[in-house]
Amino acid sequence: MEEAEKVYEDLSKGGVEVDVYLYTALISRYCKKEDMKQACRLFDEMAGKKVAPTAHTYGALINGLCKSGQLNAAEILLNEMQSNGLELNNVIFNTLIDGYCKVEQVDEALRLKRIMETKGLVPDAYAYNSLASGLCKLNRHDDAKRLLYTMLENGLTLNTVNYTTLVDIHCKEGNFDEAKWLIREMEDNGESPNVVTYNCLIDGYCKNGRMKEAYALKDEMEGKELMPDVYTYTSLIHGECMHGKLEGALMMLNDMSQRGLSPNVVTYTVMISSLCKEGRSDEAFKLYDQMIDAGFTVDSKVYISLVRSLH
Fold this sequence. Notes:
GO molecular function, one term: mRNA binding
CATH class of the largest domain: Mainly Alpha
Helix content: over 70%
InterPro entries: PPR_rpt (IPR002885), TPR-like_helical_dom_sf (IPR011990)
PPR repeats: 19-53, 54-88, 89-123, 124-158, 159-193, 194-228, 229-263, 264-298
Number of strands: 0
Family: Belongs to the PPR family. P subfamily.
Low-confidence stretches: none
Shape: globular
Mean pLDDT: 90
Number of helices: 18
CATH architecture of the largest domain: Alpha Horseshoe
Largest sheet: none
Protein name: Pentatricopeptide repeat-containing protein
């Protein structure tokens, strides 16, 4: 950033006009640094000096505004871009769609999808997955499924992320046979399930008390050289604790440690609560100390469990 700023300052001091390419580079870098105040200042300066922004300039600023949650400002720029006769593209629409989905304004994102379609742009796998994920966050699973199946009807191919979203939906609905079938289908279509895909199924099985199948999937993913992560282990630990199998949970916690994985806040919370319920307060407090040392914020559930274990 310093080099680009130095060039800008040297040119400005020397009375040399800064061109659109340097402005765009600086705006892009400020956006990446999440310094939207400076990015917008430079964009306004361009207008004052009658330097016309390009599609890349608009794209960089729209991306930065979306990531900082300033979606109204980003959409104003989209309209301005169109008024200035610049060509709109999938990347800019995808950025806005994803931005709206991240703040759970999915209906606004769907509105933008319709707008881009009226302009002859075809939503791609990225746009569909942003929309499907956003719908899932709002528990609109049927809408998410319809959307992804519409994607197939439109001749687009599902990628691993799209398949994983569908697997997650079916697991949340308890349709495990359908979820497993989707994994087989994605492999047949040349897409490889990843750790996240398997984690969706493992978590679903654990929550439904189907621990044998959850462990079988863990073995399957390891057979494919996909290493279980903290989310895999947390699901298994939670499943064991939910069904009163504390020793199994402790074995998983130990296995996790041997693999060099650190528990997350959910892992600690589940284990501490379960140890307290079993009257094993010494072990619970030991984990509590580890949790504090790891820098996690302890919620009220943990404190209540620890206090109750002392009575």
